Amino acid sequence: MIVLGINAYHGDVSAALVCDGALVAAVEEERFRRVKHWAGFPEAAINACLAMAGVEPTDVDAFAISRNPRANWLRKAAFVLRHRPARRLVAGRARNQARVAGVASEIAGALGLDARAVRRRLHWVEHHPAHLASSFFVSPFEEAAVCAIDGFGDFVSTSVARGAGGAMTMLDRVFFPHSLGLLYLAITQYLGFPKYGDEFKVMGLAPYGEPRFADRLRQLVRLHEDGGFELDLSYFAHARGGVDMTWDGGEPTIGRVFSPKLEALLGPARAGGDAPLTGEHDDLAASLQQVFEEAVFHVLNAVHARTGLRRLCLAGGCAMNSVANGKIRERTRFEEVYIQPAAGDNGTALGAAFHAWHALSGKPRSFVMSHAYWGPAFDEADIAGAIGARAAEVRERCTQARIDDQAALCRIAAGFLADGRIVGWFQGRMEWGARALGARSILADPRRADMRDTINTKIKFRERFRPFAPSTLVDAAAAYFVGAAADPFMLQVVPVRPDKRTVIPAVTHVDGSGRLHTVDRQANPLYWSLIGEFGRLTGVPVLLNTSFNENEPIVLRPEEALDCFLRTGMDVLVMGSHILQKA
Fold it and tell me: What is the pLDDT of residue 135?
């Protein structure tokens, strides 16, 4: 049985293909459109998944959509009657629901199928069950507590389930308008970061401040004894005034979600853009992170108390908060945590596919997601063609070599890194999810304290406070990080050992932590070999790793990698067997 999972008309639209209970392809639409968080219909992602699997559109047995327009309609109606939201809020949601409801026609048009045949094969999966399924059904756990925390989807912001075998039992939910994702978004916007997905910037800013505004921010959210919570809606605009949102194509937008009362509490909001960031902004970010963590651990401790299980599967946009993730084992009674690399809305395509697979097949689980390399790959001819298309510029600016022996390729690249060169690394299938994990990465020497500023200013062209991640061999992680658990998806921040902070300063955050990425030989043998060669040269089996991009989605094709290399301050590009070195 072949199931195509689709996230459409939401943020980070995507597609994932499951064949006989195993994932074979998954990719986000933004990688093709070259616009971050692309919202709309993921036509290119759908076709790419089918191509990667060698599957014809007529072979697909089920199209699983990670939305359900009919979900929670009684609650929606009761909310409208009770709160009388602005007409534009209701009209905007209605338009989005209509687009989702008409997705069969979009699929048919994209794949050359009859719309009636597609409708017969549609499988609607509510947003939060798709989140839950995206984590539990691909986890290594036979039984686990499952929790999803995000902004909203199908009128739900937080959900809790118990997973066992090929089934999940829903235990609890928190409904609109109460949301920890909205709490984080409100302060993110207040701090002058208005773009969709900017929350990660606030998480990166938080270690630079002190949480001296935490008591004020605690006024925004009340925690209940049963593990639930509610927002003080007087500080927010999304429930009654209405917030403009666009999900129909291009970069998604969300209007201002906080009310004037928040500015009365905290002072005027930062204008954003070129407005300076002050110590007060740092402190607000630190305060938000603390209050958010308190609420998340309040929810998770209640989940543990209710299930009694020691294993946790986590999903939803809030599961991308790697700082909070790294503290789960310390601040709760969960001993093991699994989060798949596309924990945000992109991952609902994956969850919808597996949810439908189990519902339709009734077969036991047989797949574990142990790596993130589910996107397109390009062969040596593709790479040579991309270089050849800009041959004159490459000859003028670079020396060029081809090294077909992979061991030699890793030795040469490790030598460049040890000499302080910044290397673009383009190899194999693209990563699924937001993190670059050694397939589409920019790499550097973590021992050089100035490397963070160099990459931020000469390559990424972004804020000074943005951190970089350490990639290390899984067997070496304990020597460099406190309480390190294997994390192939770079979704947990943990303390760097005090005696190692001066050894790898470029990947050590200002608070002494690092967003750990462990590399396993079986999952990515080439990247594993590169880190090993660097370790043999330097005695430090750790590399600075950041995504291969510059204010754009991670590069997908060789052409995009070459363009990013030539227009930024990277020194070397290793793409397949080809090495380009700037003069």
Answer: 98
Q: CATH number, domain at 209?
A: 3.30.420.40
User: CA–CA separation, 385 vs 46, rounded Å?
Assistant: 25
Say if strands 14-19 and 2-7 run parallel, antiparallel, or are unpaired: antiparallel
Residue 77, pLDDT score: 76
Burial of 437 (C-beta count, 10 Å sphere; 0-12/13-18/19+):
buried
Q: Report DSSP state, residue 524.
A: -
Element (H, E) at 18: strand 14-19
Overall pTM > 0.70: yes
Q: Kindly give the interhelix angle for 43-53 and 103-111, rounded to the nearest 10 degrees.
A: 50
Is position 402 within any domain?
yes
Specify the pairing of strand 423-426 against strand 572-575. parallel
578 secondary structure, DSSP code: E
Mean pLDDT by 10 residues, the chain (583 residues): 97 97 98 97 98 98 94 76 70 74 94 96 98 98 98 95 97 96 98 96 96 98 96 93 80 95 98 90 98 98 98 98 98 98 98 98 96 98 98 97 98 98 98 98 97 90 86 98 95 98 97 97 98 98 97 97 97 98 95
List, in sequence order, every residue forming a beta bridge with 143; answer none if it has no partner.
164
pLDDT score recorded for residue 372: 98
Same domain for 214 and 129? no
CB contact at 8 A, 127 and 66: yes
Cα–Cα separations (whole angstroms), residue 72 to 156, 324, 403: 9, 30, 58
CA atoms within 13 A on the CB side of 143: 6
User: Are residue 245 and residue 355 in the same domain, yes or no?
Assistant: no
Nearest to 332 by CA among 367, 292, 297, 294: 297
Spell out the long-range contacts of 139-142 with Cβ–Cβ below 8 A and sequence spacing 24 or more: 139/163, 139/313, 139/338, 139/340, 139/368, 139/369, 140/338, 140/368, 140/370, 141/311, 141/313, 141/336, 141/338
The kind and range of the H/E element at 144 are strand 143-153
The verdict on 265 and 352 lying in the same domain is no
d(CA 178, CA 468): 33
Q: Is residue 320 part of a domain?
A: yes
Helices (H) and strands (E) in the chain, counts: 22, 23
Say yes or no: 455 and 531 in one domain: yes
pLDDT at 471: 98
- How far is residue 181's CA from residue 192's CA, in Å, rounded to a whole number? 17
Instruction: Please give the Cα distance from 9 to 99 (Å, whole number).
Output: 7
Domain-ending residue, one of 306, 329, 361: 361
User: Do 424 and 562 belong together in one domain?
Assistant: yes
Whether 53 contacts 24, CB under 8 Å: yes
Query: For the CA atoms of the chain, what is the radius of gyration?
Result: 23
Tell me if 127 is assigned to some domain: yes
In one letter, which amino acid is 144?
Answer: A
Q: Are residues 210 and 332 in the same domain?
A: yes
- Domain of residue 411, residue span: 380-582
